[in-house]
């Protein structure tokens, strides 16, 4: 392991310690506050909160996360190949590396175009499909 | 040096135990995040720095978010108390022990093939940067698996998008 | 090696007082407490002052000369504010969330190349390190918003997480051309290679700033910048905390110093993103067309580090200024426009840039535009 990671660990430790430090200073500085029931309710623009805050949301958020993971794994695979590209120009294997990168980009692009054509990239699907100007 | 490694191992195992036994599934997924971070630190100590970075990006940034989204999407999943499942733990326990034994044997055989027998060799192995080596390997002996994985991922993407369609 | 330790070594007599890990701790402490956090504080003042100038107002002018100590007053106010957690909320996750945000943004400072000699840790995987560490912010925001038990918060947190996650891809893909050019993920070496000088003898091996390496990297810089804006939830991508629809988004229930930590983390993240644009595309600590270490006479290392540090800060703060400028220029995007821009706009363009850069490198044998013009092709 590189010794540079020791510094990185210290950055993590010190920045993590900053949070309790600041909250602790705040705890010592501020006047004692009275806790009332209304104060502890969650903020809904002054109204009494209605129902649970944990509402249902659009499944598209989930979709985005799935597609992200796939793109991310691809990227993790292409970064090491990209680091070799420069020296491959010198030692004459550039055609192989270039075709590798090209293939990578092309396959991702095919996936992207597939989603695009099928309309999976539209956030508000119904609206765009049946919009009057189309 | 090794104190950090020890700390990371404790973090990994302890948060893995929380993942396994905490009744609240949201907490379990938060501690899963810490397990991933601990594993990344172990990768660093094995000299696989790029792998550690990729581990954090993919697992902490991607998989954890995906799990959190899934939990938040399905509220009955959040309210379920996993402690109800305590009496159904015999089969998982047997399975996990079997997997552990298998992994131990596989890793043991793999390590035996690596040039790590002396402390100096180990030091040399863990201190060489692996990113470029990985690049060369992906272009050389692992060219075909690499392409296969790219196509597999393309299939995975198409499948995921297809499954998630509302119709 | 720990770069700052090397620097300390050049100041004779200092080195040896502490072991290596001690120097590592000291440099981490200095960077976080004398660069990251003060920047986070001052940025709030600068932002208000810039806003005032653009809207023909005066802005903060009461505390100290030209209101310069406004941020200190704000900090005191935040520390003295009441601190509470909503009753239905989740205490543990509520406390954990700011930690993720602060660690995610401040740890990235470890690999920022403040000068050739002032890098916390010039890691082999520097670029990937920044990407990895800043991903911690997304789960932090999501968990904090969930723990608040507030509808505004949850919606804001979901938007934040999905936005950060989607724009991570254009950001990483617009770093890829730089990796192709430099053949390295190490930020120090990426910056070093951008030191093309007018009369230096290193013209053949060093190219000018990566932004001017070829037309594709020039576009790629803007992609990285736009992606960075979205990752840090800045306008026009501030949907997660859109005041007019979500009150304050994911930090609605965070009061006092907890909110302060969120704001601090976010401004630090803005700095990290701007520093990344600077280091990867705008030559980092290089003075344009000049290498102060090859002037013909030797300068003390401390002076070189001093000059380079200021060069880096000037460039980075200029990028930060553009970020703040945009805030008072552009309206907010809609959520479908946001996702459309990422998947249909930035992503195909990033692919185009990668292939274009690779082709350029192949055709011109890795020479940059500047090297070709100077006849080193």
Ordered list of secondary-structure elements with their pairings:
The complex is a heterotrimer of chains A (134), B (167) and C (377).
Chain A: H1 4-29, H2 37-40, H3 60-91, H4 94-117, H5 125-129
Chain B: H1 2-21, H2 25-45, H3 49-73, H4 75-79, H5 90-113, H6 119-127, H7 131-139, H8 143-163
Chain C: H1 3-10, H2 20-54, H3 70-80, H4 91-107, H5 126-134, H6 137-147, H7 151-182, H8 187-192, H9 215-231, H10 243-246, H11 256-281, H12 301-327, H13 335-363, H14 369-373
Helix pairs in contact in C: 2-3, 2-11, 2-12, 3-11, 4-6, 4-11, 6-7, 7-9, 7-13, 9-11, 9-13, 11-12
Structural class of chain C: mainly alpha
Which percent bin holds the helix content of chain C?
55-70%
Secondary-structure element pattern of chain C, one letter each: HHHHHHHHHHHHHH
Q: How many distinct helices of chain C?
A: 14
Calculate Rg of chain C over CA atoms: 22 Å
State the low-pLDDT regions of chain C, or none. Answer: 8-12
Provide structural commentary.
The complex is a heterotrimer of chains A (134), B (167) and C (377). Chain A is mostly helical. Chain A has five helices and no strands. In chain A, α3 (60-91) runs antiparallel to α4 (94-117). Chain A is flat. The termini of chain A are far apart. With 167 residues, chain B is an all-alpha fold. Chain B has three domains: 1-87, NADH-ubiquinone/plastoquinone oxidoreductase chain 6, subunit NuoJ (Four Helix Bundle (Hemerythrin (Met), subunit A), Up-down Bundle), CATH 1.20.120.1200; 89-127; 130-167. Chain B has helices at residues 2-21, 25-45, 49-73, 75-79, 90-113, 119-127, 131-139, 143-163. The longest helix of chain B has 25 residues, at 49-73. The model of chain B has no long low-confidence stretch (mean pLDDT 81). Chain C has 377 residues and is mainly α. Chain C has one domain. Chain C is built from 14 helices and no strands. Chain C has helices at residues 3-10, 20-54, 70-80, 91-107, 126-134, 137-147, 151-182, 187-192, 215-231, 243-246, 256-281, 301-327, 335-363, 369-373. Chain C is globular and about 70 Å long. Classes of the chains: A mainly alpha (134), B mainly alpha (167), C mainly alpha (377). At the A-B interface, α1, α3 and α4 of A face α3, α7 and α8 of B.
